[in-house]
Amino acid sequence: MSDTTIAGPIGIFDSGYGGLTVFKEIHKQLPQYDYIYLGDNARVPYGTRSFETVYEFTKECVFKLFDLGCNLVILACNTASAKALRSIQQNDLPLGKKVLGVIRPTSEIVDQFTKSNKVGILATQGTVNSESYVIEINKFHPQIDVFQHACPFWVPLVENNELQSEGAHYFVQQDIEELLALSPNIDTILLACTHYPLLLPIIEKYVPEGINIISQGKLVADSLVDYLKRHPEVEAQCSKGSKLQFFTTDDANDFNEKAEIFFGKRIASETIKV
Questions:
Q1: Does the pLDDT at position 229 exceed 90?
Q2: Phi, psi (degrees; rounded to nearest 5) at 17
Q3: CA distance 223 to 217
Q4: What pLDDT, on a 0 to 100 scale, did the predictor assign at position 150?
Q5: How far is residue 16 CA from its own chain's centroid?
Q6: Which of 123, 267, 128 is nearest to 195 (CA)?
């Protein structure tokens, strides 16, 4: 375990590639820091796995990032944030280490987007089953009604780079229609999976005009900027050398090829065991 008195990179964890859409926005706003990204591609998807399995996998990856020198780790994965974050924060954190997720930053400000107080959530089955968004949004904004719908085919479509396929159009249209059927007054849809922004051009085609579509990347980045300002003791533990490192638990060449789609630029990763 690394010494928390030594400043280290900010760790970004995801079950695969999706967290790169969040990392991209974080790096855009905070380019001066060092970062280590870890994708657990060998064990993706997390969305269909049990709470216990997601917790164990997430904990292993978070502690690997701690071992690599990170004092602050962002779970840039909704499923990990929903199923593992609280347990890790309450039971496992070594002194001086911090782990943050993506659900709270989004839930805190969702009221700024809705006028009808009817919000739709599109997410993995695991995130939907956890009820995490319902709980968090109702904690901050009890007046908001939350309607959830699971999209089990969206992550595989993105991971297999089938972004413009007939299947992508079919499943996106079907899932959006099923979500909107839950309430005629939904005026805001939150994409509660970091893979989903890659499907945005298709999503926009099937979401009726006048409904807000929220992606998480910028919201999480804004929240991290604010967090570091409010916690100078944590900010002081984050090293600043503008260095980026990428690790995957699967094949590095395959990761590099697909990661460019999510991160927007070419990267060079290494395979790592957790």
A1: yes
A2: -100, -25
A3: 10
A4: 97
A5: 10
A6: 123
Question: Could you give the angle at the alpha carbon of 238 between the alpha carbons of 46 and 262, nearest 5°?
Answer: 40
Phi, psi values for residue 139, rounded to 5°: -65, -45
Catalytic residues: 77, 193
- pLDDT, tens digit (0-9, with 9 covering 90-100), for 191-206: 999 999 999 999 999 9
pLDDT band at 2 (very low <50, low <70, confident <90, very high): low
**pLDDT of 141 above 90:** yes
- How far is 222 from 210, CA to CA, in rounded Å? 25
DSSP 8-state class, residue 238:
B
Average pLDDT over residues 34-51: 93
CA 222: distance to chain centroid?
14
Q: What is the pLDDT of residue 161?
A: 85
Residue whose entry in the numeric block shows the structure tokens 């972004």 = 163
What tokens appear for 196 in the block?
């989903």
